Amino acid sequence: QPGYTEINFVQGDMFKYIPNADAIMMKCILHDWDDKECIEILKRCKDAVPRDGGKVIIIDIILDVKSEHPYTKMRLSYDLDMMLNTGGKERTEEEWKKLIHDAGYKGYKITEISALQSVIEAYPY
């Protein structure tokens, strides 16, 4: 890609094989799938990153229904949209934590950004 000298974009079928990489980034991907499929995808990602310093970067919505954040209503509408159109869903932090743990990851970190989504760094090792 022009302008990115140290980043290579590689396509793959996340249900069959994910090519090896230092890090894997998925933006607005996991909300399309149910928990079982997300765990399968996350396990494949785990197998594709190195044991030393590898991570999976997830950019997706984190729901907090009690929040008074200006984006809360929009995030909830995306949750409804995902349920109706894909069978997926937006997830709370607790749901993300369980998903990441069930896929065998050792930890994660969430960073809020100025967007509907947050950045979740999942550490497999």
TrEMBL record:
Q: Which residues constitute the signal peptide according to the record?
A: none
Keyword S-adenosyl-L-methionine assigned: yes
Keyword set includes Transferase: yes
Note the InterPro entries from the entry. COMT-like, COMT_C, SAM-dependent_MTases_sf
Note the SUPFAM superfamilies from the entry.
Answer: S-adenosyl-L-methionine-dependent methyltransferases
GO biological process entries? methylation
Q: What is this protein called in UniProt? A: Norcoclaurine 6-O-methyltransferase
The species this protein was found in: Thalictrum flavum
